[in-house]
Amino acid sequence: MEKQWWQEEVIYQIYPKSFYDSNGDGIGDLRGITEKLDYLKDLGVTMLWICPIYKSPMDDNGYDISDYKAISEEFGTMEDSDRLISEAEKRKIKIIMDLVINHTSDEHEWFQTALKNPKSKYHDYYIFKDGKEPPNNWRSVFGGSVWEKVPGRDEFYFHSFGKKQPDLNWENPELREDLYKIVNWWLEKGIAGFRIDAITFIKKDLTWADREADGADNLARCTKAVRNQPGIIDFLNELNEKTFKPHNCFTVAEAAGVGYDELGNFIGDNGCFSVIFDFRYADLDIASGSEWYERIDWKISDLNKKIMESQLSMQKYGFSANFIENHDQPRATTKYLKENQNNSDAVKTLGAMYFFLKGLPFIYQGQELGMVNFERKCIEEFNDLSSIDQYYRSLQEEYSKEEALNFVNLRSRDNPRVPFPWNNEKYGGFSQNKPWLSMAEEYPKINAESQIGKSGSIYEFYKSMIGFRQKGKYRNCLIYGDIQPAESSENVIAYKRFTETEEIYCYFNFSGKNTVEQLSKGGYEQIWTTFGEAEISGDKLILKPFQSVLLKSKP
Ligand code: NOJ
């Protein structure tokens, strides 16, 4: 793969609603992000991914856009957005926006016009079907049929996600051109690119045929018919040619459903995106990636296998987008470390293990503090529409209320969406007033102020790890070097990063016990550890509980 300008970035994801509230309405905002740019600069990140800030009724917290060229009032104004971009630029921090173009809000003018006037051209901007009954039995990602009846007419519209998120009809060239204009308009404002939402959903199975039901609701999961369907690449190539490519911008796509053998179309020299997220290892605790109630008991060796498979597949074509958290995933500490979620050595090992993989590291807000899941006591405490649906579907599948609550607590998207804990004051210094979602229970203990400048804290650990990768002596190998799995004992993940001239072995001990690792040949220098020094005795490496170490092999 040819070298690209974005390969050295460290990306930090901001969920604006929960980052910092500058005006005391309990909701985070753009000015709040601008005020905290120095915090992000200090941490060492170089690019921000800002979740949707466009005008929206917020049914899905901004992933339901009603005007692509306006900012949602609770987040501020277009001037605030321009100011954020320019203030970030002063600090050499780039900004990428979330691009949601599989669907809009039902409150978008296009959809409203389509409803009011079925003869208008906007009717064909969406997917409508005539009939008295839903046209097929597909289940939407957030539950219930993908079809919603148009009030007063024998007609249904299609939505892959919530019913207030009608899908756009990408088969219509005029719609596509309108979307490209919006994409270019934002790029011309000086943003560095986009994180692209649900992009593999833009092409549907146009037979709209029923599928075999797979749940107590007698519906069939829609993903097999609406995700990564044949022909999608033509749409994606066109999008790339008309928007991203001429701007040489960075793009990271949420591209669930893409097979490893298809990656050449998506990333690398001939791909439509810079990188894509791979969810296979993020979803290793649930059966098929979407049935949250079919939980899987997994071991570190399974995680190791999945991560390495992903890395080796991505490396064939280009770079990976490495992450352990985002706004849709539970906190990584709780998910991957289970009962060790509060053990700071374990949290650091988890952070280092994914951070030194080949590719771009993404950090989700609060991950750098070691935040953990927040257990809620009843379904009424949840805000996220998909968590609420999951609870009721679990009951329908005949799980008990306790089991249903447990599933939702483990997987809920409200876990990472709690307000950012800046300090231990009331409302964690996030806002002067009651936040839109409760603070995480541990905020008096786990907050930024208690960690900044404190040696051994998780924040300081992340900061120094970022500095080591970005500015240290081994940056070339750690950023551009290839990856290969290395042998390790059962609870240790190990890999080698290498260039033609350097080799760095990376070991991460995920167990609370000492482990003994077999080194392939003698002569190693320890160049980085999560704490202390590991013991090397002949060709054996002895790792302390939850210790990680990077070894440079001596020629
Ligand atoms: C994926 C986004 O990450 C998620 O938060 C959103 O609900 C869906 N796409 C629908 O836009």
The geometry reads as globular
Largest sheet: 8 strands, parallel
Low-confidence stretches: none
Percentage of residues assigned to helices: 25-40%
Global mean pLDDT: 96
User: What structural category characterises the helix and strand content?
Assistant: alpha/beta
| Distinct bound molecules | 1-deoxynojirimycin
In what range is the share of β-strand residues? 15-25%
What topology does this entry show?
Layout (H helix, E strand, L loop, with lengths): L10 E4 L15 H6 L1 H7 L3 E4 L3 E2 L11 E5 L6 H13 L3 E6 L9 H8 L11 E3 L7 E2 L7 E3 L5 E4 L14 H16 L4 E4 L23 E2 L1 H4 L5 H16 L2 E5 L8 H4 L8 E3 L22 H16 L5 E2 L9 H6 L6 H12 L4 E5 L20 H12 L4 H11 L2 H4 L40 H14 L3 H6 L1 E4 L6 E7 L4 E7 L5 E4 L5 E6 L5 E3 L2 E4 L4 E6 L2
Helix pairs in contact: 5-7, 11-15, 12-13
This protein binds 1-deoxynojirimycin.
Give a verbal description of the structure:
It is globular and about 80 Å long. Helix content is 28%, strand content 17%. The strands form six sheets. The protein has an eight-stranded parallel sheet with strand order 13-12-10-5-2-1-15-14, with helices on one face. A five-stranded antiparallel sheet has the order 16-17-18-23-20. The protein has 555 residues and is of the alpha/beta class. Bound molecules: 1-deoxynojirimycin.
